[in-house]
Amino acid sequence: MTPDDRRYSSEHEWAKLDGGEVTVGITDFAQEQLGDVVYVELPSVGDQLKQGRVMGVVESVKAASDLYSPVSGEVIAINDAVVSEPQKLNDAPYADGWLIRVRPDNPGELDNLMTAAQYDLHVSDRGPEE
Asked: Which of 27, 35, 41, 118 has a beta carbon 3.0–4.6 Å from 57's, enabling a disulfide?
């Protein structure tokens, strides 16, 4: 089940506002589509991100996919554990498999993203190979 305490992008990233920070990760649907994740490339602490722009790459045994930032802002932390153990994305995409933390330029950008119910509908409309 998709957690309803965060927002979702059409590119399958999630964003969870906690205080003044936004934690970002990929959805369970995304990790299922990717298969076994073998490599993760993330932005560096201090990098400025723009909503909807590429922020990194995730590679699996099946494919490589760009990661898109769900919010604009400054990267304040990266999950080194995911970089050193990429399978954490498969094991716990909504918990230990988070990717980065961002200090958002405008927390209102989260309103541009989908709710859990909207995201579930979005992925249910997709074929198994999309």
From this structure: 41
Domains of the chain (ranges, CATH numbers): 8-120 (2.40.50.100)
pLDDT tens digits, one per residue of 48-107 = 999 999 999 999 999 999 999 999 999 999 999 999 999 999 999 999 999 999 999 999
Q: What is the DSSP string of the chain?
A: ---TTSEE-TTSEEEEEETTEEEEEE-HHHHHHH-SEEEEE-PPTT-EE-TTSEEEEEEESS-EEEEE-SS-EEEEEE-HHHHH-TTHHHH-TTTTT--EEEEES-GGGGGGSBPHHHHHHHHHTS-TT-
Q: Which of 13, 1, 2, 4 is nearest to 109 (CA)?
A: 13
Amino acid in the structure at residue 62: K
- In this structure, are strands 64-68 and 54-60 parallel, antiparallel, or unpaired? antiparallel
